[in-house]
Amino acid sequence: MKVVLRNPRREIDVATPRNVAQLLTDLDVVPESVLVIRNDTLVTRDERLREDDVVEIRPVVSGGAR
């Protein structure tokens, strides 16, 4: 499966099968700090990933009024 990471942007290939939680653990990513998008759809940590998936991991960014 292809995984696209942001900040900095890079792409890696990862073996499957695994779920989102396992992927984040293997990549040493804190689950609460990112959104995981599979084929343009937001997914939860228990979603099973497949070999033909394209997964994007985006950092959560928050802001507020000045």
Structure characterization notes:
With 66 residues, the chain is mainly β. The protein has a single domain (2-59), classed as Beta-grasp domain (Ubiquitin-like (UB roll), Roll), CATH 3.10.20. 11% of the residues lie in helices and 38% in strands. The protein is built from 1 helix and 7 strands; from the N terminus they run βββαββββ. The chain has one helix at 20-26; strands spanning 2-5, 10-13, 18-19, 34-38, 41-42, 48-49, 54-59. The strands form 2 sheets. Strands 2-1-7-4-5 form a 5-stranded mixed β-sheet, with no helix packed on it.
Topology:
Elements: E1 2-5, E2 10-13, E3 18-19, H1 20-26, E4 34-38, E5 41-42, E6 48-49, E7 54-59
Parallel strand pairs: 1-7
Antiparallel strand pairs: 1-2, 3-6, 4-5, 4-7
Keywords:
globular; two-stranded antiparallel sheet; single chain; Ubiquitin-like (UB roll); mainly beta; 66 residues; 7 strands
Overall pLDDT, averaged? Answer: 91
The radius of gyration over CA amounts to 12 Å
The name CATH uses for the topology is Ubiquitin-like (UB roll)
Low-confidence stretches: none
Helix/strand order = EEEHEEEE
What's the gist of this structure?
By secondary structure, the chain is mostly beta strands.
